[in-house]
Write a structure and sequence with these properties.
This protein is mainly β. It contains 4 helices and 20 strands.
Length: 349
């Protein structure tokens, strides 16, 4: 299914630049990671900046402008002010939180990242590679909340800083952040059964979630012969989930089985390891002129984008939207082969 090496979900710039919040019992809260108490990067008490020095112009909803009345803006512990409290569900320690934010460098006030004009950023709360301050900030925050967050170096990038962003080991990070949603990652599909259209393959998943055994996909037959494959892309819900809608460009956590229409031969499956692991794929199409850049075959992306988390989707991909006329010899796929996938959509990342 991949044109080239699978892209890693961890390390995306937007997910790495985030941190901060405690419980929602008061309008202003703070928390300290254990490592920061002994950190040489802390500052004297009289150098700690007040949170009301963070000023945000929200006239442009897609590009809030953060300015700092005090520079350098420094804190010794992740500190959060709840600008407005949302009425939605609270973020749990094992959830995926969805946020939009603007991040600035506390030393010079320079903007680092703005995601308000992009799809929501997913923050895996139990990801050990996540900023400690980000996890602290979001834990217990309610959906719809708007937060101002200050994160000291020890609870952000640590002593290394970020050369790519121009953040040094002494820079506090400042965020204006909106909590857009929260959801628990799924282990199996959770949706309403949908009757598929006629003349499509039938699907049996023995363990309910394709965790350790590939799905059994049987092609439709007429007079004892496999019927002709569709000539256009088919994306058919077998289970319609009620979670977030998948958008182009984001990463999706899933399990899947892929077979060739004419032979019924399986060529790829997330269950091949037998360990029940999920896989994370970017919903980005590969460029046939630059396959080394990564990405997925076009039909796989088109078949999943627009679907919802919790769904099980049957995708039939004609050759032109699969591996093209060259096929994929390593996988035993010819240039004339139609591909069939059964995909369980478990999380939007």
């Amino acid at each position: 299914m991949r044109r080239s090496t699978r892209l890693l979900a961890a390390g995306a710039l937007s997910a790495v630049v985030l941190s901060g919040c405690g419980d929602e019992s008061s309008s202003s809260k703070s928390s300290t990671a254990a490592s920061s108490a002994a950190s040489p990067l802390t500052v004297a008490a009289d150098k700690v900046a007040p949170m009301n020095a963070i000023k945000v112009d929200t006239k442009n909803a897609k590009a809030p402008k953060v300015t700092l009345a005090k520079k350098p803006f420094q804190v010794n512990k992740t500190t959060v002010t709840t600008v407005s409290k949302g009425t939605g569900a609270a973020v749990k320690p094992t959830d995926i939180a969805y946020v939009s934010y603007v991040a600035v460098n506390g030393t010079d006030g320079k903007q680092l990242v703005n995601t308000y004009d992009k799809p929501d950023v997913a923050v895996l709360m139990d990801d050990k590679t996540q900023f400690p301050g980000l996890v602290t900030a979001l834990k217990g925050a309610t959906t719809g909340s708007v937060l101002d967050v200050a994160i000291p170096p020890a609870e952000g990038f640590g002593g290394a800083g970020s050369q790519a962003l121009g953040v040094t080991a002494k820079d506090t990070l400042i965020f204006r952040m909106t909590v857009k949603g929260a959801a628990a990652p799924l282990d199996k599909p959770d949706g309403t059964a949908v009757a598929p259209k006629a003349d499509l393959p039938t699907v049996v998943v023995s363990d309910g979630n394709q965790s350790k055994k590939a799905a059994t996909i049987t092609m439709p037959k007429k007079d004892g012969k496999v019927v002709k494959a569709p000539t256009k892309l088919v994306s058919q819900d077998l289970l319609a989930g009620k979670g977030r809608k998948i958008v182009a460009g984001q990463t999706v956590r899933l399990r899947y089985t892929g077979v060739i229409w004419d032979s019924g031969k399986a060529f790829d499956s997330s269950a091949v390891s037998g360990k029940g692991e999920t896989v994370d794929f970017p919903m980005t199409k590969a460029d046939p002129k630059n396959p080394a850049a990564g990405g997925m075959i076009p039909g796989f992306v088109d078949g999943i984008v627009g679907k919802t988390v919790g769904s099980r989707v049957l995708i039939v991909i004609p050759p032109a939207q699969g591996y093209g006329s060259t096929g994929n010899t390593q996988a035993g796929i010819k240039g004339t082969d139609t591909l069939v996938f059964v995909v369980d959509v478990l999380a939007a990342l």
